[in-house]
Automatic annotation (TrEMBL), chain A:
UniProt record similarity statement: Belongs to the binding-protein-dependent transport system permease family. HisMQ subfamily.
Stored CDD domains: TM_PBP2 (cd06261)
Protein name: Glutamate/glutamine/aspartate/asparagine transport system permease protein BztC
GO cellular component, one term: ATP-binding cassette (ABC) transporter complex
GO biological process terms held by the UniProt record: amino acid transport
Alphabetical UniProt keywords: Cell membrane, Membrane, Transmembrane, Transmembrane helix, Transport
PANTHER family: INNER MEMBRANE AMINO-ACID ABC TRANSPORTER PERMEASE PROTEIN YHDY, MEMBRANE COMPONENT OF AMINO ACID ABC TRANSPORTER
Stored PROSITE patterns: ABC_TM1
The ABC transmembrane type-1 domain, residue ranges: 223-418
Record keyword Cell membrane present: yes
InterPro entries associated with the record: AA_ABC_transptr_permease_3TM, ArtM/GltK/GlnP/TcyL/YhdX-like, MetI-like, MetI-like_sf
From TrEMBL, chain B:
Lineage of the organism: Bacteria, Pseudomonadati, Pseudomonadota, Alphaproteobacteria, Rhodobacterales
Classification via Pfam families: ABC_tran
Highest taxon, organism lineage: Bacteria
Domain ABC transporter: 15-249
Molecular function (Gene Ontology), one example: ATP binding
Matching SMART domains: AAA
Record keywords, A-Z: ATP-binding, Nucleotide-binding, Transport
Protein name: Glutamate/glutamine/aspartate/asparagine transport ATP-binding protein BztD
Family note: Belongs to the ABC transporter superfamily.
Annotated InterPro entries: AAA+_ATPase (IPR003593), ABC_ATPase_HisP-typ (IPR030679), ABC_transporter-like_ATP-bd (IPR003439), ABC_transporter-like_CS (IPR017871), MetN_ABC_transporter-like (IPR050086), P-loop_NTPase (IPR027417)
Keyword Amino-acid biosynthesis set for record: no
Length: 430, 255
């Protein structure tokens, strides 16, 4: 450096102040120039798009603004509108209970599914947000039993005995596990069944305690039914899917074989076929006196269906992990269960989040397929009782738009949550 | 630096391998391996790629299965019995070429995981031990970062600390410096030299011949799945016996 300092020398005596960028290079002007009018093709496209948007607003705007909310039939709407464009939202304000809760749920009991919904949000919170106190997981554990009691009614003792059975079964399992995993599982199962049998015998005797008006499964419907099926099936299919994915990777031929056959068979069959099996065929395989609840049968089928898909998504996540992670876990002396729970699954599930959410959102929307086997979910409600009634025959946009809105809000929330979660879990390239 | 090759080695056998053979399908990777490692010994295993040196040390903690022969590690006979395998693995630490830290856990969690879950040590005590070893590898200030935020050399030193937290009696190194930039190799080797000075039993697959000269008390040369030559480092480098060893040494020490 020393040989060139004579003619290249430079010393700054005062520092330059920060300046504003030129007006063309900042804010909305720059944004519009670079995004909307960067060349003539883009400019033309921008103008065409603007035209389409304006036309849409001008045609849909009046339809919304002229909407009528307080008539009791489509004919009255048409009378009031008198040929003008306008929506007949009265169908929503008159039939909203049916859209949400189905046709036969007793109207003085609507607080029960509403309360169950609120409790569901509370119960889901500690699972979804790690920052919340872990003690809240107790609510999550109790929620299924409380929700069953709230939705189906009857005495709370049924739920209590089921809960006791589960707890006793789990305790017996943890005690018996050291004699072998399978033995522990069988012992736990037997203990639970024994408690359920005893509970079943005692329940009639204590029938008077905290009784809610019983509601039969066939009386459930509307968006509530979609929610029930969606929430139950997603929460069941995730653990089952994980087990299937691990089973498919297993070195034990029988477990691997069962997993592969199950996954490939279920994925090869349309969901609608499985639902028909649930509603019609399944009854042939059970003894005539058993009367398995239709909702339960549908839940089993949808869970099987989605767990097969989730298993494949998770298998992708497992395959994406470098072999070194398995080896590092092994070399530290972790056993299989520890390695999976602490090392492999946290990483594999993180990779699988987009795929799992994809399946979950798809599954939630697929719950509307139960309308085909004459269950009155939200879509079944619209297609059946409401559109078939003399008052509302012919109202399509308003009803299906409402259904779409409900599903969109739910699915979009799930999607936003998953993206937030992915950002939270990103520890590798910070 | 202390010349560790002069350090005392005990008569107690830490690892004994007899007539061990391994196949990948039809391919005979390891052929009739006989090897006894004494406690406190530091062995460097060298050889061309594909000679089976990594496979050999991976057999010792059962990351690879051997099909014939006998391996006894620390008095435990290595069979397909999972209990034996886990027992051996918790006594034998291992460092990998690509570090294999757990990217979803912090440095500290990486180090405390196995002590807490395998050794059932209380969390607080495990953290103290972890900090002790992180200080030893000179990165205690990175304890709460994630592996992805560290340089390669730092990651490898964490990997060494992670193994040490299990208080292993034997350490296996599988090309620990091959994935590192030249300037990071030194910091990792320094850590390993320090470990050797403390009398740790070490088996190290490496191409760092300087390290072998300084630290090892035995160098093993492998080719085509067999042990071709083994000797003390001075003799091995200055006076190799087999033609294959001479060729190998002339190639790697050529520049």
């Amino acid at each position: 450096m020393s040989d060139m300092h004579s003619h290249l020398a430079f010393v700054r005596t005062e520092m330059l102040a920060q300046q504003e960028p030129p007006i063309k290079e900042k804010g909305i002007v720059k944004w519009a120039r670079s995004n909307l009018f960067s060349n003539w093709v883009n400019s033309v496209l921008t103008i065409v798009a603007l035209y389409v948007i304006v036309r849409l607003i001008f045609s849909a705007g009046p339809w919304f603004l002229n909407g009528i909310w307080d008539t009791s039939s489509l004919a009255q709407c048409r009378e009031i509108l008198d040929g003008a464009r306008g929506a007949c939202f009265s169908v929503l304000s008159e039939r909203w209970q049916q859209l949400l809760f189905g046709i036969a749920y007793p109207s003085d009991q609507y607080w029960r599914p509403t309360l169950a919904f609120v409790l569901m949000l509370v119960a889901a919170a500690p699972v979804l947000f790690v920052a919340l106190p872990r003690a809240m997981l107790i609510i999550t554990g109790l929620f299924p039993f409380v929700a069953y009691w709230l939705l189906w009614g009857g005495t709370i003792m049924t739920s209590v005995f089921v809960l006791i059975g589960v707890v006793v079964g789990y305790l017996v399992f943890t005690k018996a596990e050291r004699f072998g995993f399978v033995l522990g599982l069988v012992a736990g199962l037997i203990a639970a069944v024994v408690v359920w049998k005893i509970g079943g015998a005692i329940t009639p005797a204590v029938d008077g305690i905290m009784v809610l008006e019983p509601v039969a499964s066939r009386d459930m419907g509307g968006f509530m039914l979609n929610m029930m099926l969606g929430v139950v099936c997603i929460s069941l299919s995730l653990p089952i899917g994980i087990m299937l994915a691990l089973g498919r990777q297993s070195h034990m031929p029988i477990i691997k074989g069962i997993s592969v056959v199950f996954i490939e068979f279920i994925r090869g069959v349309p969901l609608i076929t499985l639902l028909f099996v649930a509603s019609v065929v399944l009854a042939y395989f059970f003894p005539p006196e058993t009367n398995m609840d239709l909702i339960l049968r549908v839940i089993i089928m949808i869970t099987m269906f989605s767990s097969a898909y989730i298993a494949e998504v998770i298998r992708g996540g497992l395959a994406a992990l470098p072999k070194g992670q398995y080896e590092a876990a092994d070399s530290l002396g972790l056993d299989y269960a520890q390695a999976m729970r602490l090392i492999i699954l946290p990483q594999a599930l993180k990779i699988s989040i987009p795929g799992i959410v994809n399946v979950a959102v798809g599954l939630f929307k697929d719950t509307t397929l139960v309308s085909v086997i004459s269950m009155f979910d939200l879509v079944g409600m619209i297609r059946g009782p409401i559109l078939a009634s003399t008052e509302w025959n012919g109202v399509y946009w308003e009803l299906y738009g409402f259904a779409a809105l409900l599903f969109f809000v739910t699915c979009y929330s799930i999607s936003q949550y998953s993206q937030w979660l992915e950002r939270q879990l990103r520890t590798d390239h910070r | 630096m202390v010349d560790t090759t002069q350090m005392k080695v005990s008569d107690e056998i830490a690892i004994s391998i007899e007539k061990m053979n391994k196949w990948y399908g039809q391919f005979h990777v390891l052929r009739d391996i006989d090897l006894s490692v004494y406690r406190g010994e530091r062995i460097v295993i060298a050889g061309p790629s594909g000679s089976g040196k990594s496979t050999l040390i991976r057999c010792i903690n059962a990351l690879e299965e051997h099909q014939a022969g006998k391996i006894v590690v620390d008095g435990v006979h290595l069979t397909s019995d999972l209990k034996n395998i886990d027992a051996i693995r918790s006594e034998v630490g291992m460092c990998f070429q690509h570090f294999n830290l757990f990217p979803h856990l912090t440095i500290l969690e990486n180090c405390t995981l196995a002590p807490i879950w395998v050794r059932k040590i209380p969390k607080k005590q495990a953290e103290e031990t972890a900090m002790h070893f992180l200080e030893k590898v000179k990165i205690p200030d990175q304890a709460n970062k994630y592996p992805g935020q560290l340089s390669g050399g730092q990651q490898q030193r964490v990997a060494i600390a992670r193994s040490l937290c299990m208080k292993p009696r034997i350490m296996l190194f599988d090309e620990p410096t091959s994935a590192l930039d030249p300037e990071m190799i030194k910091e990792v080797l320094d850590t390993m030299v320090e470990l050797a000075e403390e009398g740790m039993t070490m088996l190290c697959v490496t191409h760092e011949m300087g390290f072998a000269r300084q630290v090892a008390n035995r160098v093993i040369f492998m080719d085509q799945g067999q042990i071709v030559e083994q000797n003390e480092p001075e003799e091995f480098f200055n006076n190799p016996k087999s033609e294959r060893t001479k060729l190998f040494l002339s190639q790697i020490l050529g520049h």
